[in-house]
Structures are given as structure tokens and as C-alpha cells.
Design brief:
heterodimer, A: 214 residues, mainly alpha, two-stranded antiparallel sheet, flat, B: alpha+beta, 17 helices, 5 strands
Chain lengths: 214, 371
């Protein structure tokens, strides 16, 4: 059953996964290429750090697109296919979830291979160290978090999506009202801290993404 | 023809008269501006005198308090914070500074309440900690929240500042920072490594590989009569001139700059001997070296640093209890070998991520099959 679902899901996802894998492989190498011409280790680290946001964006984007692809055909078929299968909803969702999560693996492997090539290139200045495995593990986790969030949103009904979007709109509205009545309380900033500070929902994305560091 | 000449003459007269008027206006405006600035300065001085006088009167009205060799002037409200905080501050300095703390008997500190209008426009009472100067006025004060540990830190900072001021001038000119009271943080070593390797001076890069004479020059422990020749190699010198080329233009002959950039090291040397040169390593690392001396030297290391007579090298050696060369060798080795765990991954990052993946997966599993 899992094999059949994974095979069909792969057809919907492969373009995204392969393109993301190419980008994932190129990111470490491009960052090294850009940092290679710097004069000092300090500048080298700074240049590598500039590329760090690329890993976070790639992980978030890959998770989003693979999650959307996982549910896309079910939405188009108005979820009749799921009803026609002799499996429970929980099992069906887990099969879809597992298959989608599996397709993040090629992207993570591409990031790991690119990072290992950088680590073994001999182009890293003396005194600095490469952390290819730590970066790849973090990339995998960030990709999975992004995938899980959008998968959960995608699995819901239109009403669920409306509730999620409505909650955001409500928060913006509350912040607007607070500022109108001169209450010095930054709700959005607090919410941002809650989400991005550890152990927040998106904390895996925040902080430095360093392939090469001291 | 005559009309054109007449026109030119008129234009010339207009330009001359016009510029004269503009200049006259400029001078009057400048005079008015100078008068205004002078009046503002006089007013500011009067306010400053008045403020100093009020501060001195307030200090005279405070209670006296002694903790060890240190004298305090405290307000009745702040007494509850001042006494335990002063004891804490002294207890934290005593193991390292020992008898050197006796010099603090020459100064006095004030600890009093200070009304602060905070961000939310509320008046809140904070604690002000400052040093009382010889003329009774207050200098280098710090305002902190009314908590004993924060007041203790403010008192310790004020004490370290006083100790720095009363310490040997050569030592303080070398250190160019307030005396440290603790050992170096582990995260400082990787930073020191990058700084050594990124330095524009060859001696710093040689210090990284453990060359102790180079470390002595990089830290300024050994004096040099010709820094341009001793601290930098020819490639460094050329890079320095290339980097500051624009500054040299107009001040020295372009020929010398061009000649240096073409590879004539003597030209680079002559240019750099009259220039302000960058330090091989930052002052942060000098402080780091003193902190290492504290680590190696153990108890009373700061006392030995401050109370030993002689050069910076002798003082460092006395503080650490080993020759200065050995201390520099340890410093270089730590800078080279201390690793910092990567920021990328930790158990807390992994734990949080896996937790949220499970939560989102569970939410998806609870979704309805009916649309």
C-alpha cells in the first residue's frame, strides 16, 4: 500500500524534489565559490554566513511544495479516492505523510553531498572547520517541520484553512486596535518571539546556518 | 562691439559686488552664530556647576558605611541594598585581587535612590552607584534596578574602574581596558583564532603557529623601535599601502606609492614609518591574555599583576606564576586548539523540531475524511 501511494505521489512531486535537490547540492558549492576570493578567515565566515539564509529558505520551500503536492490530487478529486480505499483515515494520512517525508530525503542528501565536497575541497582557510553533517541534519529537520506544518494545514477542510487564516487576521486586527487605543503592547513581536525562540514552532529556522565556522 | 565690452564690464562689476555682499553677509552670520554658541556654552556651564553643587550637597547628606577597606555614602532607602551588595562585590574580587584592594580605601562610593521616568512614563525608584571624586562630585555613575545582585555588579564595576585608574600607567596603557576579574569565556578562543589568522600583521599569523617571539611582538609585550619592519612582512606592507593609497595621495609623492605597489619594499617601509599602523591584534586579546594569567596563576593573580614592579612582561609572569613566554605559548595553543560546538545543531533544536513534527502529524491524522 505504502509503495503504491509513494509511487503515485512521487510522480506529482519529482519535479519539485529534483529541482530542490539540484539547488541543495549547488548551495554549499556556490557559497564556497563566493567566499573563496576573500582575503581573511573573518571575511570568509561572513560571506558563508550570508548564504545561510538560503538553506532555511530551501528547507521551508521544499517542505511547502511537497506538502501541497501530497494533497493536491485529493483536493482536486474532492477526496473521493481516499473514501474508496479500505483503510482508516489515520492510516491513509500517515501513508501520505510518510511518502511525502521520504521525498525530502533526496534534497537532504544533495545538501549533504554538496557540503561534504566543500569540506573536502581543501579550500577552507586554516583555523576554520566545516560542519556538513550538523548542517544537513538541521536542514532535514527544518524541511520536515515545514512539510509537517503545511501537510497539517492541507489535510484540513476549507473551513480549517479559513480558521487558520482568520486567526492571523484576528491577531493583526487586535494589534491594530491596541495601537489605536495607545496600549504599548506589541502582540506580533511577542508572537514572533514565541514562534521563533526555542522551543517555538519555527525555532529550527532561526539562528545561524553555518557550513563553515570557527 | 563697444556694447559687448560694456556688457562684460557690467557683468564683472556685478560679480565682484555680489561676492562682496555675500561675504559680508556670511561674516555677519558667522558672528551671530558664534555669539549664540557662546551663550549656549555659558548656559550649559552654569547648569553643570549647579548640578555638581546639588550632587555634592546630596552626597554630604548621605550616611557613611564601611565594608572592608571601602567607604560608601548611602541613602537610608538604599542601605538595604548597599550593605549586602558591597559584601558580595568585595567577596567576588578578594580571591584574585587580595591586598591590591587596599588601594580602594582612597576612594568612596555613593549608593542612593534615583527616580527614573521609565519608558511607560512611570516614575520608578532605581539604585544609583557612583564613585565620589576628590571635589565631592560624582563620576562614572550607573543606575540599576533595585536588586542586590545587580547593585553588587554595579559596585564591582565601579571598584574595578577605580583599581584600573590607580594602577600602573604603563600596564593600563598596554591593557587599554578596565581590569578583568574573571577568567576568559571558552567562546573567546575561537574568536582569537580567527583574529590571529585574519590579522594584517605577519607576527599575529606567526603567533598562531606557536612562534613565541612573534606573540611577544603581536601582544606588544616586547617593544619594537620599527613597527613597520618588525610587525609586518613585505606583502603586508604592500597591502597596507594599497589599502590606504588614497590617504597617502597628496600627502606624499605619488612616485613613492607607485614604487611600493610595484614591489619596492624600501618605498613601502618609508611610507609606513610615518603612518599610523594597525595593531597586530585587538586589545580584547590583551585582556584575554590577562584572563589566562588569572586562570594559570590561581589565587591572588591580580594582586601579583598589580603589585609587582616592572614591565608588563614581569607583571604577567608574576600573575601567572610562570615565565611570560610560557604564558604566551599556552595562549597560542588554546587559540589554535579550542573548538566551539557548531550553532547548527543541538539536542534542544532537534527536540523542538521533532516535537512539532509529531504535533503537526497528529493534527493531520485527526482531520476529517468528509468534506
Amino acid at each position: 500500500m505504502f509503495q503504491a501511494i509513494a509511487a503515485t505521489q512521487w510522480k506529482w512531486t519529482r519535479t519539485t524534489a529534483l529541482l530542490a535537490a539540484v539547488v541543495g547540492f549547488a548551495l554549499p558549492i556556490a557559497s564556497l565559490q563566493s567566499a573563496h576570493e576573500t582575503a581573511t578567515p573573518q571575511e570568509f565566515i561572513a560571506r558563508m554566513q550570508n548564504w545561510g539564509i538560503g538553506y532555511a529558505l530551501l528547507a521551508a520551500g521544499s517542505g511547502l511544495l511537497i506538502a501541497l503536492a501530497a494533497w493536491g490530487h485529493d483536493h482536486q478529486g474532492r477526496h473521493v479516492y481516499a473514501l474508496s480505499l479500505p483503510v482508516s483515515r489515520v492510516r491513509y494520512v500517515m501513508l501520505r505523510f510518510g511518502a511525502g517525508a521520504l521525498f525530502l530525503a533526496p534534497i537532504t542528501i544533495a545538501v549533504l553531498v554538496g557540503s561534504l565536497i566543500v569540506a573536502m575541497s581543501g579550500a577552507i582557510p586554516q583555523g576554520l572547520h566545516a560542519f556538513p553533517i550538523a548542517l544537513s541534519v538541521r536542514f532535514a529537520l527544518a524541511g520536515l517541520v515545514s512539510y509537517a506544518i503545511f501537510f497539517a494545514i492541507g489535510s484540513g477542510t476549507t473551513r480549517t484553512a479559513a480558521v487558520v487564516l482568520g486567526s492571523f487576521a484576528f491577531l493583526l486586527f487586535v494589534q491594530f486596535i491596541l495601537s489605536l487605543v495607545n496600549v504599548e503592547f506589541n502582540l506580533l513581536s511577542r508572537l514572533g518571539d514565541f514562534v521563533f525562540a526555542r522551543p517555538g514552532l519555527l525555532s529550527v529556522f532561526s539562528g545561524r546556518w553555518m557550513l563553515i565556522d570557527v | 562691439m563697444s556694447r559687448r565690452i560694456a556688457l562684460r564690464v557690467l557683468v564683472a562689476i556685478a560679480i565682484v559686488c555680489g561676492s562682496g555682499t555675500v561675504r559680508a553677509q556670511d561674516i555677519q552670520a558667522y558672528e551671530r552664530r558664534v555669539d549664540t554658541l557662546h551663550a549656549t556654552l555659558s548656559h550649559a556651564r552654569a547648569l553643570r556647576r549647579s548640578h555638581d553643587s546639588i550632587s555634592a550637597n546630596r552626597v554630604r547628606a548621605l550616611d557613611s558605611l564601611s565594608v572592608g577597606p571601602v567607604r560608601f555614602k548611602v541613602s537610608p532607602w538604599a542601605r538595604g541594598y548597599a550593605l549586602p551588595a558591597a559584601r558580595l562585590a568585595l567577596a567576588s574580587l578578594l580571591p584574585q585581587f587580595g591586598r591590591a584592594l587596599d588601594t580602594l580605601s582612597r576612594v568612596a562610593y555613593v549608593v542612593r535612590d534615583e527616580l527614573v521616568n521609565d519608558v511607560a512614563n512611570h516614575d520608578t525608584t532605581f539604585v544609583l552607584v557612583g564613585e565620589i571624586a576628590a571635589d565631592g562630585t560624582m563620576q562614572s555613575s550607573q543606575v540599576v534596578a533595585p536588586q542586590v545582585d545587580l547593585v553588587a555588579i554595579a559596585i564591582r564595576t565601579a571598584m574595578l574602574r577605580s583599581l584600573s585608574r590607580s594602577s600602573d600607567a604603563t600596564l593600563m596603557a598596554w591593557l587599554t581596558a578596565v581590569l578583568p576579574h574573571d577568567t576568559a569565556d571558552q567562546a573567546e578562543w575561537p574568536r582569537a583564532r580567527v583574529e590571529l589568522l585574519s590579522s594584517r600583521a605577519a607576527v599575529a599569523r606567526r603567533c598562531y603557529v606557536g612562534n613565541v617571539p612573534a606573540c611577544r611582538l603581536a601582544f606588544g609585550v616586547a617593544a619594537t623601535a620599527d613597527p613597520a619592519a618588525d610587525l609586518f612582512d613585505s606583502a603586508d606592507r604592500r597591502a597596507l599601502v594599497e589599502g590606504s593609497g588614497r590617504r597617502y595621495r597628496g600627502r606624499v609623492a605619488d612616485v613613492a606609492v607607485e614604487s611600493c605597489l610595484r614591489g619596492a619594499d624600501t618605498a613601502c617601509l618609508s611610507l609606513l614609518r610615518s603612518a599610523v599602523l594597525p595593531q597586530p591584534i585587538s586589545n580584547v586579546q590583551r585582556r584575554n591574555l590577562v584572563q589566562l594569567a588569572l586562570t594559570v596563576g590561581g589565587a591572588n593573580a591580580m594582586e601579583r599583576l598589580l603589585m609587582t614592579e616592572g614591565s608588563v612582561e614581569r607583571r604577567l609572569s608574576a600573575a601567572a606564576g610562570i615565565p611570560a613566554d610560557s604564558l604566551l605559548s599556552i595562549w597560542s595553543s588554546r587559540a589554535r586548539n579550542t573548538m566551539q560546538p557548531p550553532d547548527n545543531m543541538s539536542f534542544s533544536i532537534a527536540g523542538a523540531a521533532l516535537g512539532w513534527i509529531l504535533v503537526c502529524g497528529s493534527l493531520a491524522a485527526r482531520s476529517s475524511r468528509w468534506r
